[in-house]
Amino acid sequence: MTNFTGEVRIVGAGLLGTSIGLALTKQGIDVAIASKSPKSVDIAISYGAGRAVREDDSPKLIVVCVPPQLTAQIVAEELIAFPDAIVTDVASVKAGILEELERLAAPTDRYVGSHPMAGRERGGAIAGRADLFVGRPWVITPNSKSSPAGIKVVAELAQALEASVITVSPKDHDRAVALVSHVPQLVSSLLAARLVDANQADVNLAGQGLRDTTRIAASDPELWVQILEANSAEVKRVLESLELDLGNVIDALANVDSEAGIAQLRKALRDGNAGVEKIPGKHGTKHSTYAQIIVMIDDQPGELARLLTEVGEIGINLEELKLEHSPSAQIGLVELYVVPSAESALIADLQERGWRIA
């Protein structure tokens, strides 16, 4: 937590705007919600994300949470309307927004771009969550004119939301998110699109692998068109590299009777292992540093809650948790991740309490 204080104005009452408002009002911070959609404002206020705007509002910080194609114009308007406020935004592409602000001759000394690496497949105020940003990276992208005071205020906002602050340039941000966010969205969507014309009996065989890789394919297409358009050059570079990799795998599958073909498949899979190892887990540690325990639970209300309660009673901290469940199965598989030193004790205690370990 941080000692963030002062009035905050949030422009846009969608998922991110509502979630920021919920988290801040929970801490007693005065939040005003503005949006061109009165219905969204009503929902956000009803949820407890803030209050309606007033004529005498004097915000310390303005957070613009609107679609990417509108962000620069709204940021410019807010900078003019509130000459004493610092303005940030949460758009997922930064360089183009800064270029547009400079074209509009906006006072960019009071503008500090930012982007929380958090979201959900569902959008809108109704999907808002106060804990959406906890433990997630919040990227701050100052421009050459951003004031130190403004940068500090935006960092304090992220810290108040319990996010992890990372500072990079707008261009470096766009290059990074093309790889870690924008291309994954496209790959997920393209894979899910293969299911449209698939035999339903085949789709019914889906396991957790398909669910994991297509989860984000449920995201809003119109929003993603804007994001991909704004970061098209960086996304294209990553996709071109991926195209080469796919070509190599296709060639290998056409030559599985040869040592070279098998070697190419093995390399692709091992490179994937190496890539996963680079993805940070809790506290920046690698996921593979944790021990995995798979617990089988009955498919009935309250079983997952009972398991987690008993893990808490045992006194062992969970580092990660995943749940796998098939519609046709009568059990669920709960993957618990703990530090290796706690693995044996947790297994023994859970078995003593009657839990089945896979």
TrEMBL record:
Pathway(s) served: Amino-acid biosynthesis; L-tyrosine biosynthesis; (4-hydroxyphenyl)pyruvate from prephenate (NAD(+) route): step 1/1
Record-linked SUPFAM superfamilies: 6-phosphogluconate dehydrogenase C-terminal domain-like, ACT-like, NAD(P)-binding Rossmann-fold domains
GO biological process: tyrosine biosynthetic process
A Pfam family that the UniProt record links to this protein: PDH_N
Record-listed E.C. numbers: 1.3.1.12
Ranges of residues in domain ACT: 292-358
Catalyses which reaction(s): prephenate + NAD(+) = 3-(4-hydroxyphenyl)pyruvate + CO2 + NADH
GO terms for MF: NAD+ binding; prephenate dehydrogenase (NAD+) activity; prephenate dehydrogenase (NADP+) activity
Keyword terms, alphabetized: Amino-acid biosynthesis, Aromatic amino acid biosynthesis, NAD, Oxidoreductase, Tyrosine biosynthesis
Domain Prephenate/arogenate dehydrogenase: 6-283
Family recorded in the similarity comment: Belongs to the prephenate/arogenate dehydrogenase family.
Name used for this protein in its record: Prephenate dehydrogenase
